[in-house]
Amino acid sequence: MSSRSRRAERSARGITALVAAALLALLVAACEREHREYESKAPPPTPANEAVRVGDLQPGKPQPPRMDPHGRSFEGNAWHVNQGARLYKWFNCTGCHAAGGGSIGPALMDADWRYGGSIEQIHASIAQGRPNGMPSFRGKIPDDQIWEIAAYVRTLSGNAPKYVEGGGRQGMAVAPPTSRLPKLEPKTTESSQ
Amino acid sequence: MSQQVLAPAADQAQAIATVWQTMFWPNVVIYMAMLAALAWALWRRRAVVADAAVQARQERNWVRALVAWIVFIALVLTAYTAVSFVQDRHRLAHAPDALRVRITANQWWWQVDYLDPDPSRQVGTANELHLPLGRMTRIDLLSGDVIHSLWIPALNGKEDLIPGRSTQLALTPRAIGHYRGECAEFCGLQHAHMLLPVTVESPAAFAAWLDARRAPAATPASPSAVRGQQVFESGTCAMCHAIAGTSADSHAGPDLTHIASRPMLAAGALPNDRAHLAAWLVDPQAFKPGTKMPNPRLQPQEVSDLVDYLEGLR
Question: Regarding the domain delimited by A67-188, which CATH topology (the fold level of the hierarchy) does it fall under?
């Protein structure tokens, strides 16, 4: 066997090993998508959403919005998003927001957000309540469960990572699976009073 | 709690046991006979028959014996089919005066509703089933989420509960006692903690029990229990649970109107006593990981008040 063919064989083996390693890494990463943490071991002592700004208007130089790493962890997790979908029906969010298209409450699957569309801002809106009809759920829904609902609401406008979203829906579906919804970048709009 | 299939305590389980006994014992005899015939065939020597006439007679005898055997097996199978047919009709029989119950399976508990033509007399409970002796109970089976299966071995066979469909199960209990029912279809992580204790009691005792279920919850008797009721109604509990006679009226989780009178907590995960109830309220996920009941994150004083309140709900 010539040295050239041996070299070619060695490099082919190297490529195979690389591909295998990449596939393995993909597999391992896929396991994380629905890592089930039934309750947070270290919940924030005080509600972090107190510091959440719900509008764009602010004094001084505009600052980037504050991120809540605890809350963000819910957004990238398929299990939490699914639990959020269950709680969305369970706590009668459908009563006003329907399946996301809105009825007597505003739609949740468009790009318009009166009080901001980041997960922190949605969490704050659920916890604090908003004028003209949105009840305050703080103390009525445990904090982790509010994060789960907020994570699910984010998927309605296509804003959760694609890998956490389900490809199908069980039961009656009024909208396409969230993984097929277009991503609508949230923008804060003037509330129409 | 009995869960013996072979000690039937209801007409339907008796029908299943009859089919089993009818098939089992003849089969034992036939199987032993087959093994004996096989042993004999292995053990005996191969006969060398020179006379063609003798050989022809022997072969005729063998053919006759084989035909007789085939006829015998056909008769046995026909008898089995007949027994199974007749007993199945018992199992699926329909009594016009049957008590109507609706059981909805959820991850991971049983919602039990006693139906009544008069809606005001309809009443719900959870994770316990009481049945009157000697009267048929017809149960409509529904599912709130995934496929479950209800199996009370001493009373009847399994019946699946399928989302979007209604299935039926009939029980005519013939012996007073406690029986164990459980989920027999893997339905998620806590499938094993989905117990349905069944109590069969005399018609009078059953009527008294059902009347007690219809009463609203007991009013709290002590100051701490009064505070406990406030915790329940003002906090996270009332978002999922109902207690008749209070403002808590959500049916996402089990009805707790008479929680203290039930045999178990959390669908069989824990015994129902003060200590376990308190431990459950402090950290449900520690006892039943994945349960839909989140940690309500109560202060120690609130837990103690809440336990005082719930323990009074007999």
Answer: Cytochrome Bc1 Complex; Chain D, domain 2 (1.10.760)
